[in-house]
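User: two proteins, same treatment. go.

Assistant:
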Amino acid sequence: MTPAELKHRLVTLFTVFFKISAVAVGGGLTMLPMMSKEFSEDRKWVSEEEMVDIVAIVQSVPGIIAVNMAILTGSRVAGLPGVVVASVGVVLPPMIVISLLAALFSQFSGNATMDHIFLGVRAAVSALILLSVIKMSRSVLKTLAAKVIALAGFLLLVFSVDAVGMIVGAAVVGLVLSWIHYLRLKKAGEVTK
């Protein structure tokens, strides 16, 4: 990659993460639909399947989902400089907003109009998260096993099972299913090694 290409990628990374972080209200999960569109649909930085994997990783590791996403995507697109630029881009807007809100909090605390505005914002955020789930499920839920694992995971989350434990459990189930599939292929003589 030439210095000019690196500079372009870094500017793009910062701009994309800053823009998404500036308009996403509600944290990392609310950013996922926008990130998925930017990264896999518009810019082709990652495939839909890779995006699903990245989402699983950023939710499984400790830390803020948006920052974890910036680290993984920044690294993939522009290495260590990409990590730094994407992380700054995703953190800067909330820092500015929180600073302003902290200064104005006493004036808006308990204000019925503001309460109604945030009620509407929360409803819109819920719709965005649901849209993200629907889009990602199309690329993942192609087999009966995947559908069963997803349903089991959903039910476990409904009953308040820890998300990290559920993801690790689903990975173990996927590994076991893969091993069973391999053994079947081997028995049928379709595996040479």
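Protein 2:
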Amino acid sequence: MTDRANIEVVDSSLVSRTTRESLAGATLVERTLGGRVFTMAGGETMQTAPHVNMEHGGMVLSGPTALQTAWRLRARHQDLVFLIEPTSVLAPATAERPLIIDEPVDALIAPTVEETLQAQRDAGAAVAVIPAGFVDVADPGALKAVLAAADNIDRDDVILPLAVHQKWSTPDHISQLIAVAARSRHPVALALGAKAGDPLNLKGAPESYRRFFGEVKGAVPWRADFAGIDAFASGARAAVIGQIPSLRRLPVP
């Protein structure tokens, strides 16, 4: 299936979903994300944008140059709703360093979290994505630290990516993940990492994945395949579907 075909299938699924039920909510993030299916793209962002359904879809820009691409995208497609994925999700989070900020090579002083979030918004992002790191299944302390750091962000225009190892989506760990995510001050986006293949290929993972979206209000599947569309039935607020297989999971750092 071509990338263009993938986009058309996503839009078709979304139109039928939003015809049945509106997911739009009262907050800025809920109104922005409500019912949309976003296409995550990397190097093909500018070529993909003209084919995205402006009313029901959107884009998530990924990669090290996503912020720069966002400025060009906004200039050409002013009505397109898009978000910017921080590269922090590709680096391991720790209890001491749950949020990870890329320091520009020409910067004398590293930007703050607030400046990083505002830079996304200034580039045209509809909401900002908190620069949280990737959490390994063996480090629940890092997961709690990510939540605590994110809860200190006093903004109503952000979403928290929970970038976690695929084993967090198994029956042995899903309850702890849900308990942490459900306490988040901000809406969360769940992205699963795997070394290769489908991150939901572990025993009990598909059922646990659906349970997550049933119990964590307004959560969003991130870097998903069409399991992200299925998550709508469990209560997901929106979905982010990778344009190509490598964008349908996170690599494990």
